[in-house]
Structures are given as C-alpha cells and as structure tokens.
Amino acid sequence: MVNAGPLLAVNGLEILFPTRDGLQTVKAVDGVDFIVRSGETFGVIGESGSGKTTLGRALVGLLAPTAGTILHDGIDLASLRHRQARHYRRNFQIVFQDPNAALDPRSTILESVREPLDLVGVGTREARSQQALAALDRVGLSAEIAARYPHELSGGQKQRVNIARVLTLRPKLIVCDEAVAGLDVSIRGEVLNLLAELQRDFGLTYVFITHDLSVVAHVSDRIAVMYLGKLMELGPAMDLVDRPLHPYTMALLSAEPIPLPSTLRRNRPVVLKGEIPSPIDPPSGCRFRTRCPHAQPICVDTVPDWRELASAHWVACHFAGQIGSDIVGTHQQ
Amino acid sequence: MLRPPLLSVQDLSIYFLDGESRTPVTKSVSFAIEPGERLGIVGESGCGKTVTGLSILRLLPPHIARVEGRILFNGEDLALLPPSAMRRMRGRHISMIFQEPMSALDPVFTVGEQIAETLRAHFSIGAKEARARGIAALADVGIPLPARRFDEYPHQLSGGMRQRVMIAMAIVCEPKLIIADEPTTALDVTIQAQIVELLCQLSDRTGTAMLFISHDLGVVSQTCTRLLTMYAGQIVEDAPVDAVLEQPRHPYTSGLLRAMPHFSERRSNLPSIPGRVPSLWAMPFGCRFRERCAYVIAGCEEEQPMRHLNGSAARCVRLNELHLPGAVN
Fold this sequence. Notes:
The complex is a heterodimer of chains A (333) and B (329).
Chain A: E1 8-18, E2 25-36, E3 41-45, H1 52-59, E4 67-72, E5 75-76, H2 82-89, E6 92-95, H3 109-120, H4 125-138, H5 155-167, E7 173-177, H6 185-202, E8 205-210, H7 213-219, E9 222-227, E10 230-236, H8 237-242, H9 247-255, H10 297-301, E11 306-310, E12 313-316
Parallel strand pairs in A: 3-8, 3-9, 6-7, 7-8
Antiparallel strand pairs in A: 1-2, 1-4, 4-5, 9-10, 10-12, 11-12
Helix pairs in contact in A: 3-4, 3-5, 4-5, 5-6
Chain B: E1 7-18, E2 21-33, E3 38-42, H1 49-56, E4 65-73, E5 76-77, H2 83-89, E6 94-97, H3 101-104, H4 111-122, H5 127-140, H6 146-149, H7 159-171, E7 177-181, H8 189-206, E8 209-214, H9 217-223, E9 226-231, E10 234-240, H10 241-246, H11 251-258, E11 307-309, E12 312-314
Parallel strand pairs in B: 3-8, 3-9, 6-7, 7-8
Antiparallel strand pairs in B: 1-2, 1-4, 4-5, 9-10, 10-12, 11-12
C-alpha cells in the first residue's frame, strides 16, 4: 500500500517530563504541528530548551508522546503492538552529534555497521557482513576500515560509519541531530555532501536538527524555528532566511557570527536582552515576549495564533508582517 | 622608537612529555599583542592554540609539558619567573576565561566568594570591600541584581550567566591582558552575541588587550582586529582581520573560509579540505599543510618561514603569486 500523504504528520505533539523531585513538569515539546514530505530536508533550528532534540527522538520512536500524535507514513506507532511498531520504526533512523558515543569502542567497525542487520536477523551473517561492507563503501570508506576500531578513525570517518550503519536498514527518513556539530568546520562539507548524495540516490528524507543557522540554511528545503517547546516560524528556507517574519528568527539571523570584513558586515545587530527562560515555567502568552524587542501587553495575555502569512510560510506572532526586518539575509541565493 | 608590545611570544615550542620521550605540540610560535589590541587565534582541533594560551600563563604542569622560548610581558620573560611571582601575575595582570564555566567555577563556593578570593589574593583588602568590588564587577558584566547573585552558587546560574561571572573574575583586578579560550563556544548563539558584545565593550572601555582563541572564524572576526591562523602546531598566517577575510594569504585559511556554508550556494556541494591533519608523531618535513594543499609545488618540501606581504604574513612559499578565495568574491 502506497501512502500518498506526508511521510511524517505531527499533530498537537506534547512531550513532558517530570522533574527529579516529581513536583514540576518540563514542557520540552509543548504543542507542535507540522508535516514532513517524502524526499525533502526539513530543518529544525533552536537553542537550549527549544525542544528540538526531544522532538528528534520522538520522531524516531525513542520517546513516546505525552499528548498528540505522530503519524509515520500514515500509521500511529503508539497504537501498534510492540513487535509491529518495531517493524515500522526501522524506516525512521537517527544519527547523533557525538560520533564517539554512538560507537562501541570494543566492536570493530564492521560489527558496528552490521549490528542493525543482526538485530533484525535477516539472512546469514556472511550476507549481512556483505551488506555492511557495501554500506561502508557507499559512504566512501574503504573495506580495510572494516577491521579497525573506532579510536583509529577520525571524527569525520566515525560519523560516516554512523551513517553507513543507519543505511543498512534502508530507512525512509533519517533524523540528523546536530550530526556535524562535533566535527571541525573544514571537514563538515564531507559529511554534508555525503548526506546530500545519499538523499539523491536513495530518495531519503531528512529532518535536520541543529543550532547552526548557516548549516541549516544550506541543507534545508524548509526550516522550522523552535523556542521553548513551540514553533515560532516555519517556511521555505530561502524565504525564512531572507524575509524572516518572527522577531526570534530575526534575532537568530542577526546573532549569527559571519566572517565578513567590517565594510560588508550588516549594521544594527539585534542583541536580545536577558536569558532563555526555563521550560518548566515558560512565560504566559507568547513565550518569546520576555526577550522580544517588540513585546506589547497583548503578548502577555494571548498566545499568538499559528497563521500562514505568506505562501507556505507560517508564524506565531501578533505583529508578524508589521515588523520591519532590518536584517537582510547575507546568504547567497 | 615604538614602545614595546604588551606581550611578545618568541619561538614558543611546547612538548608533551611521556617518560623519556617528548612529542612536539607547537613549533616556534611567535606573535605580539599591543596594549589594548584584540588578537584572535583561529584553528581547528589539535592545532595547538589552547596549549599556547595555557603556556603564556604557565598553566601546563611541568611534568607533562616542557615549554621552550620566550614569553615577554612588558619586557619581562614570564618563562623565567619563580612560581610565587607567576602566581602574582595570574588573575592580576593577565587573566584567563575558559570554555566551560561550570568546570572553571568551584561548585561548592558561591560566585561572590570566588570573585572575592581573586581580589584578596592580589590586594590587601577586607571582606567588606572585596564584596563591594565584587558586586560592582558583576554589575559591570551585565548581571541583573548583582548583590543577590553574589551569594548564589554556580549551579543556580545559566550558562550565559556563569560565563559572565568568569569574565567578572577575569576583569576584577583590572588586568592588562585577558586570554579567552573559546569563551562562547558552549553558549547559545543569542547568548554568544551578548557575551561578544560585552567583551568588546569592556576591552574598549578599559583598554584591556585580549587574546581570543577559537575555532570559530565568525566570532573572532567580530571581536578582533588581527588574526592568527594555526595549523598543526604552527602559525601559518598573521594579518589584520579585514585583510585575512578579503584576501587570505595561506591556503589553509582560505580553505577554512570557503568551508563555511555562507559562502556557498544553497544546496550545492560544500567545499572541504581533503585529508586529515598530520599526526603529531608523523609530521611531514617542509610545509605541514602540503599533503592537503591544492597549490602545492616542489618548493613546499622545504622548511617554510613566515613571509611578509603588505602587512600580512603567511607561511607559504607562494605568497607572492597566489590569489586565494576569501570571504568576498
């Protein structure tokens, strides 16, 4: 059965955690709605407490929603029995930030890459090893790497091993949670280019979670901006970066350190005041209001509606569209 | 006759000791900082920038590291100072800000106790005055309700606040030089912007010089007037920031700039620098970057000194011929 709908459909998603003493709740994800279409790269950007990492884990079934639903290819995994759910979850995989933590230091690279296939139990061990070698080759690693141990590889190589490991299961969607943040800038291109290539060759869909605007702007078709568990803005990457509608997005763009000579640097950076509030006790109304340079009384009382202001460009702000963006995107088209 | 620089590092070579053997980590690093100047050192993991910063304050344990070369501060060689004199130097005339405020701050003492400790180590003042000066320092770094924060513990503060506390500790004795090692790397980007602005304002107002160590070219170009690029234990470029960004003189600096997604078309292939940094134990002779360099020629197998051109310096034999891509097309 081919599902013609979106690959992921998130509705009213809430993920709440009790604090250690059980007396309070961390509202990590506090009401989020969006879809992810097959074949696209959906970027999610946010800072500490935004909920983006929690969201990523929920998308691959590592965390269960407290409320709301996530439909994977039209199916609600929470409604399935454990073994059935596991079968569908294969299609949705994740690559994490720290290439070291993801690899068992006592397993060879081959063993690590073959492990998902071993767990699923398909075919003979020899056949699975062949598949693992093919995956390693696909990510540009030679067969002689297979017998090595993680500590013998560089950060970039280890991250490519993690991608190979995920590829063995032929997933439909890969969540990349800060997948290049732990790598030196000069080698990030390797991994990002590989991900783009694999997307073209295997028709993969990505949810790319990061705090790094320049990376997310480069790889994404659409970008969602999260703050304290909610979406602030969501739109096509180019539109969001060149014509941001939400003051938080404008501040993020403005805060991004770009190595431009002083003559070309934009003036009037928006430096936000204050700290990021705690997700245990987010501000009432619009949760960005405590740091927003445009906040008004209505922002205290009323949660802004999530509305589509421009084509496929959504924003949650009472004054979106009325706020002049002094920030001209410096990203090239 | 020009007055001497505030800090003059000359032929700094650092070795890590392991029993009988020693492994070179930096080789003949030389640079100078003028009073009030903000100098950035940019490089990726393993280039030696952090150990260089630590060695200036002689924070590398002598049984682990051997430091050779001269570190002249106001004309005095720090490498020759006895430990007691060095202790009087640290925090008072040269101070340091680290990357992880939670590791640098003692969790069992209040923030105020730690600032007061710094003050009272260098000045003979009483507890009351130390408290007053400490609260003033917290206010200076933009911490709201500083009198209250003074009595709080590090874990009660956010990452950005803790970093401000570290900066307060670094400035409270009015040093001439602050060494900042990745001071904003662990912070959210909107908080990073605040801290960057704070450091620049403080430095402008008090005339304190800064040595800003980072892997982030963007942050360094926003805060500093001059930039050093380090690769595999050596300085490979030394130039004013605008000059480096417009016209880098070393292929590594150019590669680093071009690798940033800002300078590539969206969705296109991102440039990267092929290969890996050579291992400390297998450093190639001649230019250390030559195995990864797109512009390599036969002359690159010779030892490369720093060469000068129009106010910039680079460790490249082709300095006068190459037109390397920079931040501007």
